[in-house]
Write a structure and sequence with these properties.
7-stranded mixed beta sheet; about 850 residues; alpha/beta; about 15% strand
């Protein structure tokens, strides 16, 4: 059988394992069909093979239109049956229109090639190539190490840094502050930037506002006193083309470092003061003359107190020279052949000490791919492990579900119906559900969650709904409570609220009711995962805005039951490709349409000079009985960010100078939780006209009467965050507005804010944000604590798709990584998961 058909069988099996969600390949089976057809037809040798391929292509293209899970099951079953020969061809199968041709001769591999070199008959699907630099990457040599020797080298890489030459206990302690404990940590601690000594600008060509790296000689060093009697060190640099003044505040010891005539490298922003070029508190280091003379690209690593740039470069050079050519490449040879990525050892050499920026880019491509691939493999393995423990099936008949749907306040959108169907199919199985429900602000996720809670109650089980704040929990208590009490299980529901504000007496009552089962639905905050909370029969847990909870917190709620079904929800739009990578351990449902009656928020970008106009507009809205938000990026003013608005200072100005007759409130993240809750409740009750806030309002306030939000320094926020802010208004019947005032007029800032004006589709904005800024805030949705991706090169969608496809191909072939060629990969996956991954 042609290898393209073998590959398709693996993909169809993966589609079965992922519950027919059409996510086994990027873009779904319909998108894969055209790519697959080319390879399959080229490999086919007989007319009946071409007929089969045409039939399979038609079936894959029709697959997304099948809405019922049973129909998709039958479609996959039919395709596999036809490929395997279990199902005969239809009598009316038309002839293929693919041009007949004589098969091309297969060129055998060289006689001296290793036995595992793929041939035309063994190569599986070839995905799109990695985004290529100017020249092809250095190809990987066949692994010279035996499996035993390779495992020994991997063990040696876990040795502490004290095994390195000239690294004692004190040096190891300094390295530990950078997260470097082992030799392997050294190899995979990458430079944070590079200085190209061949491309440094002369001082005479510097312009104010530029962020540059320069090299020059110290001409003079003097202590000075600035405004407010602030002492500083003034260093004057000279590169024989011009002079540059450098001011160091609060660092008087530097006077001993800067010797007249010594060479120094500085990186920072160029300003102008009294007609002179100036840098303030730049990063700096003494120039290593060998780098200047060889004109090489110099890596700049993160530092800590007592660890100089020269020292860490020397240690890195020692580690690279000793280990880069010895480290086993754990990536399967088949993956590297398909992707044409560079050798791991060569990539480590080039990412630390690059010969050129072109080769650096090749190295970063390989190492970024590894991070994405390994993370994906770890997540899929984690999912398999968790779902190996049975859960409790929750089933209801169709007529009962219909009786539930008629009690809802509006007819569900098709996206809500599809999400509910998927969830219902999940929880009907004894395999525990682990699903992400992603929907824009106001798309109706809570209604879907309430329906699922009702199904749990109908089955006589307990359900929990956890929210990140008391305000959100109370909002859900009202909305979900109303939906449940009006549902067919309304007379069975015993619903309670458990938050940090719950009194001790009531808290003990709730503990007892959950333990004996008399309370079957509880809505709350982190209070739900306290040690005293015990459930009698928890079968379902819903987690709202799940990225607000840490890994251990989410795991604690899961541990309260017998492997309960888990539904996590987020209102942060994430591009589908990125979501399928970050959430490889979850099934994904997206609600991408709004319920009827939602009026889009009108968005306008204003210039600084139009601020008074914005204030007047807010006054007019309040005159109509509405309320308003004004958002600032900082809590308090910063010396380093003089042009950035701060909530505390602006609150005083707005309250006394701009809106003296209005009730103005203040909310920011440094307030105690009880204070924040009190302010938000007061605003929700209509007792505050204007709420001045920081980004703390991004999630958690539902005030239907709020009709306008003014966002200052809007250029400092990502599109995803701006869209969340906009979602604070337009939640009621009133026409609502979002006003954006930006300080920066850079093309990138203008492009982002223009996108906010043009669309209210959060998913479109997320795609734009990803392409412009990288994953940014979206990456934080998956993370908790340390960064998952050290190079974080998931700004490139093609690289993400490539890593995702390769990981799924390997997983479909060998989910337990038990085949001999996958043993080293299994070891690497385990190492990565233990060190970095969020395996919630």
């Amino acid at each position: 059988m042609p290898s393209a058909l073998e590959t398709l069988v693996k993909i169809l099996k993966l589609e079965q394992d992922t519950d027919y969600n059409n996510t086994a390949v990027i873009g779904g089976l319909q998108s894969f069909a055209d790519h697959w057809a080319r390879d399959a037809h080229q490999q086919a040798k007989k007319p009946e093979h071409h007929q089969l391929i045409d039939e399979i292509i038609r079936t894959m293209r029709e697959y997304p239109a099948l809405e019922a899970l049973e129909d998709r099951h039958e479609s996959i079953k039919y395709m596999m049956g036809r490929i395997m020969g279990r199902i005969p061809p239809p009598a009316d199968l038309p002839p293929s229109d693919y041009p007949s041709h004589e098969p091309e001769p297969v060129v055998p591999p060289p006689t001296d090639a290793p036995a595992d070199v793929p041939t035309a008959e063994t190569v599986a699907e070839v995905p799109p190539p990695a985004p290529a630099p100017k020249s092809l990457p250095r190809r990987r040599k066949p692994q010279p190490l035996s499996p035993e020797k390779a495992r020994q080298v991997l063990d040696e890489l876990q040795a502490p840094t004290t095994t390195l030459h000239r690294v004692g206990d004190k040096m190891a302690e300094k390295l530990s502050k950078l997260g470097i404990e082992t030799v392997s940590d050294m190899l995979f601690t990458f430079p944070r930037r590079y200085d190209d000594y061949t491309q440094m600008k002369p001082l005479s060509q510097l312009k104010p506002g530029e962020i540059v790296t320069v090299a020059a000689a110290v001409r003079s060093v003097d202590r000075k006193v600035g405004r407010g009697n602030r002492p500083y060190l003034l260093v004057v640099l000279d590169d024989e083309t011009a002079l540059l003044q450098v001011a160091f505040f609060n660092q008087p010891w530097l006077q001993r470092q800067f010797k007249r005539g010594s060479q120094v490298v500085l990186s920072g922003t160029v300003d102008i003061f009294r007609g002179q070029l100036l840098m303030t508190n730049p990063e700096w280091e003494m120039l290593e003359r060998e780098n200047l003379h060889t004109g090489r690209i110099v890596p700049v690593y993160p530092l800590t107190k007592g660890l100089s740039a020269r020292t860490i470069r020397r240690l890195m050079r020692q580690v690279i020279d000793q280990w880069a050519n010895r480290i086993p490449d754990t990536m399967p040879e088949s993956v590297l052949e398909r992707t044409e990525l560079a050798d791991l050892g060569w990539s480590l050499q080039q990412v630390h000490f690059p010969n050129s920026f072109d080769e650096l880019e090749q190295a970063r491509q390989r190492l970024s791919f590894d991070e994405l691939f390994l993370f994906q493999m770890g997540m899929m393995g984690n999912r398999q492990e968790w779902q190996s423990v049975p859960g409790q099936p929750l089933r209801v008949p169709d007529d009962w579900l219909e009786s539930l749907l008629v009690t809802l306040p509006y007819t569900l959108t098709s996206a809500q119906e599809q999400a509910l169907d998927r969830i219902r199919a999940d929880i009907a199985r004894d395999v525990p559900m682990n699903r992400l429900l992603q929907g824009d602000v106001g798309s109706g996720k809570t209604v879907v969650a309430a329906a699922v809670l009702a199904i749990a109650v109908q089955n006589g089980k307990q359900a929990a709904f956890m929210a990140p704040t008391s305000i959100l929990a109370e909002q859900h208590m009202r909305s979900v409570g109303n939906l449940l009490h009006q549902s067919p299980v309304g007379d069975q529901v015993q619903l309670r609220l458990l938050t940090g504000n719950t009194s001790e007496t009531e808290r003990q009552e709730i503990y007892a009711g959950l333990a004996d089962g008399s309370i079957n639905v509880v809505i709350g905050t982190h209070a739900l995962i306290q040690a005293n909370v015990e459930f009698r029969d928890l079968a379902l847990a819903v987690i709202d805005e799940q990225h607000r909870f840490g890994v251990e917190q989410r795991g604690s709620l899961r541990g309260k039951g017998t492997n309960p079904h888990i539904l996590v929800m987020t209102a942060t739009p994430i591009p589908r490709t990125l979501a399928l990578t970050l959430y490889a351990d979850l099934d994904l449902s997206i609600i991408d349409e709004m319920p009827p009656g939602r009026t889009p928020v009108e968005t306008r970008v204003l210039q600084n000079v139009e601020r008074e106009r914005a204030y007047s507009f807010i006054q007019a809205q309040i005159d109509k009985g509405r309320q308003a938000f004004i958002v600032y990026p900082l809590v308090e003013a910063s010396d380093k960010l003089e042009d950035v608005g701060a909530a505390v200072g602006e609150y005083e100005r707005l309250k006394t100078e701009i809106f003296p007759k209005r009730r103005v409130g203040l909310l920011h993240g440094q307030m105690r939780p009880a204070e924040k809750d009190a302010v938000m409740k007061t605003f929700a009750a209509g007792e505050i006209d204007i709420l001045v806030s920081t980004s703390v309002i991004e999630v958690g306030i539902d005030v239907p009467n709020a009709s306008v939000i003014l966002i200052e320094n809007a250029d400092r926020f990502g599109l995803a965050q701006l869209h969340q802010f906009r979602g604070r208004v337009g939640r009621g019947e009133h026409k609502s507005f979002c006003l954006l005032i930006a300080e920066s007029v850079t093309p990138e800032a203008t492009q982002r804010l223009t996108a906010m004006e043009k669309t209210t589709d959060g998913f479109k904005l997320a795609e734009i944000d990803w392409s412009m800024r990288g994953p940014g805030d979206m990456l934080g949705v998956r993370q908790s604590g340390d960064s998952v991706f050290r190079l974080a090169q998931i700004v490139n969608p093609r690289l993400v798709e490539l890593a995702q496809r390769e990981a799924r191909t390997v997983y479909a072939e060998d989910p337990a990584l038990e085949q001999p060629e996958h043993h080293l990969l299994a070891r690497r996956v385990d190492m990565v998961l233990k060190r970095r991954a969020d395996v919630s």
